[in-house]
Design brief:
This protein is of the alpha+beta class. The protein has a single domain, classed as Nuclear Transport Factor 2, Chain: A, CATH 3.10.450. About 35% of the residues lie in helices and about 25% in strands. The protein is built from four helices and five strands, in the order ααααβββββ. Strand 4 and strand 5 form a beta hairpin. The chain starts with a helix and ends in a 5-residue tail after the last strand.
């Protein structure tokens, strides 16, 4: 129980940081489950950006639909935890994520690490705050540095809290 409370606390902190540090671009209508790890992570960022800017996010059920979709990018054991974070960020503050670039740092067997090498996030109306450059900040989507991914049955999933 204490571990779950800690994970939830970390998620809330990470999502708060995310509102200050994120970056992504564009959107894709379907999750590419066969992608390389860096493409899979970028696909998550694209979907997250689309969810952040969905004009229907306040409609009944739409936020839950996005939370479910975004959680599918994470390991099964992390999904309920990350949904709580998405609940607190989607539709809260206008946020635009753009020009993201990613690269694979390493891939060994069914484990990979990726890095966000570029992109920015604009919080609020354009011009209210300066864009935050993602390549200069740590990833708010995971703990312990760069995003880690694990492959299960041929699909790459984000490991929210990598187990040491």
């Amino acid at each position: 129980m204490l571990i779950n409370v800690r994970r939830l606390g970390r998620l809330v902190v990470a999502m708060a940081v995310m509102l200050s540090l994120v970056a992504a671009c564009g959107s894709e209508s379907a999750v590419d489950i066969a992608a390389r790890p860096e493409e899979r992570f970028k696909s998550f960022l694209n979907d997250y950006n689309t969810a952040l800017n969905d004009p229907k996010i306040a409609e009944p059920g739409k936020k839950a639909e996005w939370m479910d979709r975004l959680a599918q990018y994470y390991l099964p054991e992390d999904r309920e935890t990350v949904k709580v974070g998405f609940e607190g960020t989607l539709g809260v503050i206008p946020t635009k994520i753009e020009n993201v670039t990613t690269e694979k740092v390493s891939e060994v067997g069914d484990a990979a690490e990726v890095r966000i090498t570029g992109g920015q996030m604009i919080i609020g109306a354009a011009g209210e705050t300066p864009p935050l450059e993602f390549a200069e900040e740590a990833s708010p989507f995971t703990f312990n540095g760069n995003p880690k991914l694990k492959k299960i049955d041929g699909v790459w999933y984000i490991d929210f809290v990598p187990k040491q």
